[in-house]
Design a protein that fits this description.
It is built from nine helices and seven strands. It is of the alpha/beta class and 239 residues long. The chain folds into two domains: 119 residues, Response regulator (Rossmann fold); 76 residues, no CATH class. Keywords: Phosphoprotein. InterPro entries: Bact_response_regulator (IPR050595), CheY-like_superfamily (IPR011006), Sig_transdc_resp-reg_receiver (IPR001789). This is Response regulator receiver domain-containing protein.
Length: 239
């Protein structure tokens, strides 16, 4: 397979101000809010970004082009990101940097065992941390030469993307969810609510996750979450 992006022109060299210039980053992430943060970080860093919101979409992308960097969320709607990471680490030619992303830091050992080059804990908003995680995983010839200032900057995703995530989970809960769907809802909302500083929703998602971990009925927790999501969807966003 061709290891270049067929839509890209001549690859520019990275600079101190834009150290990821010339790189294509495939972000495998189901949260639009989290992905919007990563889009802004890539934009500030000079990288091109492509997004896949599930394993199936990611595999379709990879049939067409080979990115330089893959950022893979470990909790996806159609399975574990660890499965995709294992595939990527074994494929030839190998993607130059494969980085796991997750709001659950206890997943890092599993990601390392699957062969990732790096791990980023969500929420991911620090420009310097984002750049360093990618650059430290790349070959030396992909990094900018000379001294480079570490940018003291964070990004703030558009709140409309948060509304999109609420709509996504509302769709999941519209039909009676099965056990896998409930686990997914709890995991998804814990990460997204933490990134958005929505402590009430995060606490409710953790309550659902706790009941699921104990194997106990979670009807009241699910209903409470569904109500909170509908309330957030009804809120007006100033544009």
């Amino acid at each position: 397979m061709d290891d270049t992006d067929p839509f890209a022109k001549a690859t520019p060299a990275p600079t101190a101000a834009r150290p990821l210039l010339g790189l294509t980053v495939l972000v495998v992430e189901d949260s639009r809010f989290a992905c919007e943060a990563l889009r802004l970080l890539c934009l500030r860093s000079g990288a091109r970004i492509r997004r896949a919101d599930c394993l199936r979409s990611a595999r379709r992308h990879l049939q067409v082009y080979r990115p330089t960097v893959a950022l893979v969320d470990l909790g996806l709607p159609d399975g574990s990101g660890l499965d995709l990471i294992t595939e990527l680490t074994q494929s030839q030619p190998r993607i130059e940097a494969i980085i796991a992303i997750s709001g659950d830091t206890h997943m890092e050992p599993d990601a390392r065992a699957a062969g990732v080059d790096g791990f980023l804990s969500k929420p991911i908003t620090s420009l310097s941390s984002f750049q360093e995680a990618i650059l430290s995983s790349l070959p030396a010839d992909r990094r900018p030469t000379g001294p480079r200032m570490l940018p003291d900057e964070t990004v703030a995703p558009d709140r409309i993307a948060y509304q999109d995530d609420m709509a996504h989970i509302a769709d999941v809960l519209e039909d009676p969810p099965d056990e896998h769907a409930l686990d997914y809802v709890a995991q998804f909302l814990c990460g997204v609510a933490r990134a958005a500083d929505d402590s009430g929703l995060e606490a409710a998602a953790r309550a659902l996750a706790h009941k699921r971990a104990l194997g106990q009925p979670a009807g009241s927790e699910t209903a409470a979450l569904a109500g909170m999501i509908q309330h957030r969807l009804s809120e007006k966003i100033a544009i």
